[in-house]
Amino acid sequence: MTLRDVPLPDVAGPDVPVPRPPAWARLLPAGSYAGRASALVLRSVTASRRAWLAFVSGFFEPVFYLVAMGQGLGALVGPLPGPDGQPIPYAAFIAPGLLAAAAMNGAVFDSTFNVFFKLKYNRLYDAVLATPLGPVDIALGEIGWALLRGALYALGFLAVMGGFGLLLSPWALLALPAALVVAFGFAAVGMAATTYMRSWQDFDLVTLAILPMFLFATTFYPLSVYPRWLQLLVEAMPLFHAVELMRGLTTGAVHLGMLGHLSYFLVMIVVGLVVAARRLDILLLK
Questions:
Q1: What is d(CA 183, CA 106) in angstroms, rounded to the nearest whole number?
Q2: What are the extents of the domains in the chain?
Q3: Which residues pair with 93 in a beta bridge?
Q4: pTM summary value
Q5: For residue 94, which of 191, 217, 7 has the smallest C-alpha distance?
Q6: Is 279 left (phi over 0), alpha (psi -120 to 50) or beta?
Q7: Is the pLDDT of residue 16 over 50?
Q8: In contact, 216 and 234? CB cutoff 8 Å
Q9: Which of 3, 12, 60, 286 is least surrounded by Cβ atoms within 10 Å, i.e. has the fewest?
Q10: What is the pLDDT of residue 26?
């Protein structure tokens, strides 16, 4: 029996109503949510202060790509058709894709490598479960921290895009909340996948999934360059939907079809969160 199995005394008194868990918590294991996920986020923020250089290093990768390919290769490629068919500079074409990739990388690598270390080697979650926190709090806390990291990368890269004059529409203000949704989806699925990993060698599969998406999901060239069978494969990739969402917002080509891209990530969030919580309940409590 752990401390979390011991019922807490009713210190609030009989007249104070006990808050009910949110409706979405009914999809998750009973008794696994205590509403204290913010405590785990605060712990991650405190721990990151000692490794701030490694934390901010992920911001520079898309900036290097933007300078090298947008300014260098862009001089050779010339303008490309934007989402509305109008030609835009090559740098303005690839920048939204790099923004989506920044949100993806910040969320995925934090919700996979770091979570695996805490789960298998640091044994942090075993100690956490000795407190009133449950598996759902762990999942939400770690996903929330990965979401925060992806959002910071996206915010920094948006500032760089603004400095280069690559934000072509006021709709670009919505690119940051869109990046939050993208990071949330990747973080949820990344953590769910991490619960199935058994050794560090399994992370080769993470790279195997991330790298092709980064190269093929219309980050550097339009979808029309592929044959139709490959277009269908690319359209199934989550990064493709993120790139289309960001490109539409930063260029002002906003349309109702973008709600479909958002729905894709809402499904990722729900499925990833439910799977991660159930797997943590099995790994840590059963």
A1: 8
A2: 39-285
A3: none
A4: 0.81
A5: 217
A6: alpha
A7: no
A8: yes
A9: 286
A10: 57
For 153, list phi and psi in degrees, rounded to 5: -60, -45
Q: What DSSP string describes 217-232? A: SSSSS-GGGS-HHHHH
Residue 62 and residue 227: Cα distance in Å, rounded?
27
Side-chain-facing half-sphere of 48: CA atoms under 13 Å: 18
For residue 89, give the nearest of 104, 102, 101, 74 by alpha carbon: 74
Q: In this structure, which amino acid lies at residue 144?
A: G
Helix (H) or strand (E) holding 237: none
Structure tokens belonging to residue 200: 């560090």
Overall average pLDDT of the 218-240 stretch? 91
| pLDDT at res. 12 | 46
Amino acid at site 262: L
Residue 174 carries which side chain, given as an amino acid letter?
L
DSSP-derived letter for residue 6 is: S
- Maximum pairwise Cα distance, the chain: 74
